[in-house]
Write a structure and sequence with these properties.
Helices cover about 30% and strands about 15% of the residues. The protein has 6 helices and 6 strands; from the N terminus they run αβαβαβααβαββ.
C-alpha cells in the first residue's frame, strides 16, 4: 500500500473522492494540514483521554496526542463530544476494529487520515446515548473537521 504524500492529500481535499475513506499518509502530513478555526476545536482533557484509553484497552500515556475535537455537546445527553464518539461509532459500524484503532492511536510509525467524500461523511453517534452528531459537527474553514491527533485525523 502506498502512503499518500502531503501533495496527494491537498489534491484530494480540492477534488474530494466519491466515498469517505481512510488512507495511510506519510509522516508529518497531518501536522502540515491547516486546522479549523480555534473556536471550532478544543483540546480533550485528561479524563476524556483516559476514557478513550479505557475503551481502547490501553494506557493514556500510550495514546499519541494531543487530541483536538470539535467543540460540541450532545443535544440529548449534554455529553461533550470527544474522540471516543468517533472511535466507538467506527467500531460499532465495523468500519474499523478496536485493535486497528488502538494501533492507529498508539503507533508512532504510522499516520492515518479519513477524507470526507462527496457522500457527506460517515455518521457519528454519541458514545453515551447514540444520538446522531454529524450535522452539528461541521465548523470552520480549514481542511480538518471534527477531530485530529498526532496520528489520526478527519478532513
Amino acid at each position: 500500500m502506498v502512503k499518500l504524500s502531503y501533495d496527494d492529500v491537498v489534491q484530494m481535499l480540492r477534488e474530494r473522492p466519491e466515498q469517505t475513506r481512510t488512507y495511510e499518509v506519510e509522516s508529518g502530513v497531518i501536522q502540515r494540514l491547516p486546522l479549523d478555526t480555534p473556536e471550532c476545536l478544543r483540546s480533550m482533557n485528561e479524563d476524556e483521554v483516559q476514557e478513550l484509553a479505557d475503551y481502547l484497552q490501553t494506557s493514556s500515556s500510550a495514546l499519541r496526542g494531543p487530541f483536538q475535537v470539535v467543540d460540541h455537546t450532545c443535544s440529548r445527553c449534554a455529553r461533550p463530544t470527544t474522540f471516543l464518539d468517533f472511535v466507538k461509532t467506527a467500531i460499532d459500524a465495523q468500519q474499523h476494529s478496536r485493535d486497528e484503532l488502538r494501533s492507529v492511536l498508539t503507533d508512532a510509525k504510522t499516520e492515518w487520515l479519513t477524507v470526507r467524500g462527496r457522500d457527506g461523511g460517515r455518521p457519528v453517534l454519541c458514545a453515551n446515548c447514540d444520538n446522531p452528531l454529524l450535522g452539528a459537527l461541521r465548523c470552520g474553514g480549514g481542511e480538518y473537521s471534527e477531530y485530529s491527533s498526532a496520528s489520526y485525523a478527519y478532513a
